[in-house]
Automatic annotation (TrEMBL):
The keyword ATP-binding does not apply. Signal peptide: none annotated. It comes from Suillus discolor. The chain crosses the membrane at residues 84-102, 133-150, 162-181, 193-215, 230-248, 268-284. Residues 1-27 are annotated as: Disordered. This is Non-ribosomal peptide synthetase. Keywords: Membrane, Transmembrane, Transmembrane helix. It comes from the Eukaryota.
Amino acid sequence: MSALAYNDAEKGTLEVHSPQLTDPTKDEKKAVDIEVFAVQSLKKDVPATLPDVVKPPPTPAKSTKKTTPLWVLWVIWYNTYRRFFTVVFVVNFIGIGFAIAGKWPYAARYPGALVLGNLNVAILVRNEIFGRCLYLFVNTFFAKWTPLWFRLACTSTLQHLGGIHSGCAISGVAWIVLMVVHQFKTKYMFNDSILVFGVITSVMLFVTLCAGLPWVRNTHHNVFELNHRFFGWTSLCMTWVYTIATNAYDTADGKFDHVGRYVVQQQAFWYTVGMSIFIVLPWICTRHVDVDVELPSPKVAVLRFERGMQQGLLARISRSAVKEYHAFGIISEGTHAKHHYLICGVQGDFTKGLVNDPPKKIWTRELKFAGVSNTSTLYKRGIRICTGTGLGAALSTCIQSPYWYLIWIGSDQEKTFGPTISGLIHRHIGPERLLLWDSKVRGGRPPTMKILKEVYDQWEAEVVFITSNYVGNFEIQHGCKEAGIPAFGTLWDF
């Protein structure tokens, strides 16, 4: 069933080295002039002092490789995503074992309900509307006053709901395979059409499942998009046919004489209705909207849309109404603002087309979905560290909250990303909570963990949110875990 990962836009993979196409305004403060600034003390009676981190850093030396402790590797690998997956998978396959052994009468009587129940949950946790409701509930009732461990658990749960999605999807396919195998074993009781539709539905669901595997979605995104979505829709249609045919067929007399009220009263019918609603609802919000495209460099397109947004949201955009949607973090000054922006780094055919052939209109979901940054309101103070185009998923949090510190690592930042993005940073984020590291000017990568630890202590932060490429995310997240700093990094949907 069609569902995109919420984390595609959280991958700040672009480190660009490109000439400037449009000059920034002359009176803007240049990014290269912004060093590391003092962090203001939280205590009123203690004056702000310059920590070691504000000293002009020397040219970064090549760091010696450090071995990550095994316990850190294990804790980060076996995260909440995999724990959710393990619980769902184990519970379902224990149930399948009991069903095969004939020890669970409900499974024998209502196999379709177990198939569709799992698929419903798999789709629901990836539904944008349901996700927004979950984030709203958590942010409204648990912000700041609850224990830190509880708030961290809330963020971790919301970020890793994909584990439930994957576990339920695999379990649903396993249940329908068991159901079809049982029908073939007793095929004298069933009409041939039911057996055929059972096989077709199983195959469609299996292909949908394979298209969503991490290797496919991360290395062949367009293949994932098209197959996961269109085979998912085909699976939904086949599920309707299979559900109605199975419930309408009377094994006692071999006729399709269970119609009307009887079919509607079955659990499987209403599970299918729910699944259809969960899939269709987000598409109702799809619109063809006006967009202005700014091209500050050949490697970046900055898209501007009407109306402001709250922080921590992401947008999906496409040139087609139903194909190839791509997710990007939303930059906005707040719900009162006239515009919001997307930073689209050139990394594939779609984003390359935004630069080579800028659109005047583009398809998007008017209802935006929440990313992990949306839970920033849970914390009293935090740090947002990002690299390259990962700024798109991080900037709104620091613009809209004075309690968040921004660390942005990139190359030729102001030239590459242009005056619009630079202006937003300089107008809304004071020097006391801003660190811009231009690797081209400073001669290389920063001592990231040294800077992060010092800012974390001085800023008295509760949590760190990371938006970086795979290597950067790995290093920072493992470093934070080893240092005892609560941190949430980019997901690749495992």
